[in-house]
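Z., the sequence and structure:
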Amino acid sequence: MTVLLRNEYHGPHHVCHTYLQDISVALLTLTSSSDKELSLLLINDEAMTLLNQTWRHKNKPTNVLSFPMEDNEPVAMLGDIVISIDTAARQAKEQQLSLHGHLRTLLIHGLVHLLGYDHERSDKDAQKMFALEKNLSLHLNQRRNTMVQLAINVDHVATLRQARGITEPDPVTAAAMAELAGAVGIVVHLREDRRHIQDRDVRILRETVQTKLNLEMGAAEEIIAIALDLKPDMVTLVPEKREELTTEGGLDVASQKEKLTDVIGRMEKAGIPVSLFIDPDSAQINASKEVGATFVEIHTGRYADATSEEEQEEEFQLISAAAEEAYELGLRINAGHGLNYINTARVAAIPFIEELSIGHAVMARAIYVGIDQAVREMKEICKG
């Protein structure tokens, strides 16, 4: 099957093309049209109005148009679906829907039209069409076709070293092994109390990491100064309490906008993109956009710690919705905390998330199988 996506929309709304292609492929499979080709065109209201004037004699934009295969076209071609992102975004806002959720509905509607259904022919045809659309929506698998990236946190290698106050195991060596096994980045948290990662570690890692170095840190002046001098590939600002065993929740961005705007501005001036570690909460997502963050890392701890299927499902839906909302605001999205070899797959399948940061589970697994295999096993899970 082939899905040809053409983007002629260059407006203010952020649209994930990979998401739309994945949905289109899944729809072709569900409708037994895997042997067909589908064209998807994204345009603005002005272009949609011109199409409506030409083909429907209507001088206004609509959300979606479908153009079935003509007799002289190849049999493999199912047809064209054209969507006005302007109209889709306006309708999504009016109906209090996410833009991508509404685009998914429009894709289903457009495809069903290409399959020969038409709600304007009769009430009976309309009932058949809407029943098929509902069925497709219920069974549509949103599994991404592109693999989420995996970054490895090596903090707990340092935790083991610090327990004896000696020089091994060395997180620098562990980072190199994780990269060789396929990690796309190394994550370390330089805490104020230096309970695991030390200044020496981050300075050597800055020189030796071949992928990218993500420095997790609290917004303390001492650590800010180190980051500005070190210039990691990115910084992730996290909340930090001395009494906690590990980071226990997301950063409250909404309550400290002025401070975080200043820190982010200083980092960006030094050429360091900033991510904010936040709970999957709309207020924190909007605040992250307001203070100028490039990324958010969605805290998956409550999902990972859920003690029932119902609780885990509720937390998963919050993460999924948060990723979509952040993307539509123009933020880039990572996720992490508490993910392991059992619960990672569902989060890895969420569209819009670029990268997962995983540490403890991989290092715990490495005790039994070695770092190389532990990382490779987690990468396979991320592939789905």
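The chain has a mean pLDDT of 93. The longest strand covers residues 77-84.

Let me know what you think.
H.
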